[in-house]
Automatic annotation (TrEMBL):
Its main location: other. Signal peptide: none annotated. The lineage of its organism: Bacteria, Bacillati, Actinomycetota, Actinomycetes, Kitasatosporales. Residues 50-59 have a biased composition (Basic and acidic residues). This is Substrate-binding domain-containing protein. It comes from the Bacteria. It comes from Streptomyces javensis.
């Protein structure tokens, strides 16, 4: 089934209504989704190899803010999580807690449980606490528009993490800023890695969650990136809601292995957690942990993903978010908001981690950010 055809209005309405949910049970597009060609893509491959080499560097100096307001006092932050079972959401929450301790601020984490009702209730609870600021952690604020409007009306600054598709301030919904890497760069890096590693000849499955607009957009950008190489074939587009990944991914992987027993040699997932759930099915089918299929996660780079990459267990690479740094950035952006300043405008550069450049680490911690933020805050 092609997903790039026009969608009827009723379908658009249904998608909008389920933007936060895992109620879309998942689907897998078949071999009709193809950008195949027998001759590879020499020009695209050369460009991809250069991009991957840049993204794999680990010695990039801190390029974030070096100036800003000193620390304000006595603040309380409410972190509303889409679900704390999402490793990216949880990783940023930990960074927020760590940075808040440096500032002497308090943090309350409220778990939405991954459902629309739970997330709306969590955000309502956060507003009732009358915090100094609220973090929207990994969900679409347009699906909680009433609660966001209440926070705006109460003059509570709202900062998003992966809340809307682009970094920076947002008017609709009203966010002081949204913190994320550039989704185009993350999606492009994962596609480039596949093109470069396969010498322009790959047969790929993409795992995504179309119920989350941010994830759906990332998956479409991944498809566009793969399409730059005519030697790459998109075998399937597996749509599995993140809250259902534990139960749905093993079934989907088994089905894909049955359909493509020898053809499937690469995978890209919008979140590393799919490969944690894919591993048992791949292992049961006799697949080696070092591939194929060679798997790369286009986010979020949680510790378990690093462990799989480092040990060669059904994941070859990840394009991680610097989760802890982004948690510190959340606190810095709030401090700017409380001080009447503009957002910093910082966007972390894209990075690719493999066993060859991870140094055995279990997270991507770009150098220099803790010291830089402490110097800004006078801490």
């Amino acid at each position: 089934m092609r997903r790039d055809r026009a969608i009827p209005l009723t379908a658009v309405v249904l998608l909008a209504a389920t933007a936060l949910t895992g109620c879309e049970r998942g689907s897998s597009a078949g071999p009709g989704e193809s950008t195949a060609g027998p001759s590879g893509c020499p020009a695209a491959q050369t460009r991809a190899e250069a991009a991957v080499k840049r993204a794999e560097r680990t010695d990039v100096p801190w390029s974030g803010p070096t100036g800003g307001p000193t620390a304000t006092r006595g603040k309380t932050i409410a972190y509303v999580a889409q679900t704390m079972t999402n490793p990216g959401v949880a990783g940023v929450a930990q960074g927020v807690r760590e940075a808040a301790r440096v500032m002497g601020w308090k943090v309350r984490v409220i778990d939405g449980g991954g459902t629309p009702v739970g997330i709306q209730a969590a955000l309502s609870e956060a507003i009732a606490l009358e915090p100094s600021g609220i973090v929207i952690g990994g969900f679409d604020p347009r699906a909680t528009s009433r609660q966001v409007a209440r926070a705006n009306a109460a003059d509570i600054p709202v900062i998003g993490w992966h809340a809307v598709g682009s970094p920076g301030p947002s008017k609709r919904p009203e966010l002081f800023t949204n913190i994320t890497t550039e989704v185009e760069e993350v999606a492009g890096a994962s596609a480039d890695w596949v093109i470069a590693r396969s010498d322009g000849h790959a047969r790929v499955v993409v795992f995504t969650d179309d119920s989350i607009p941010f994830a759906r957009n990332k998956a479409q950008l991944i498809r566009k990136g793969l399409a730059r190489c005519r030697g790459v074939r998109l075998l399937a587009y597996a749509n599995i809601p993140i809250p259902d990944a534990g139960s749905r991914t093993p079934q989907e992987v088994s089905s894909l292995l049955s359909r493509f027993p020898t053809a499937w040699d690469y995978s890209i997932a919008i979140n590393d957690l799919y490969f944690a759930d894919a591993a048992p099915a791949l292992r049961a089918a006799g697949k080696r942990g070092t591939g194929p299929p060679f798997n790369i996660g286009a986010g979020d780079g949680d510790p378990s993903a690093f462990q799989r990459v480092n040990s060669g267990q059904y994941q070859a690479a990840t394009v991680p978010e610097p989760l802890s740094q982004q948690g510190w950035q959340v606190i810095d952006e709030f401090n700017r908001a409380f001080s009447g300043r503009a957002p910093s405008g910082y966007v972390a550069p894209v990075h690719i981690v493999t066993a060859a450049n991870s140094g055995g680490a279990t997270s991507w911690n770009p150098p220099g950010y803790r010291r830089a933020y402490r110097e800004i805050w006078g801490k």
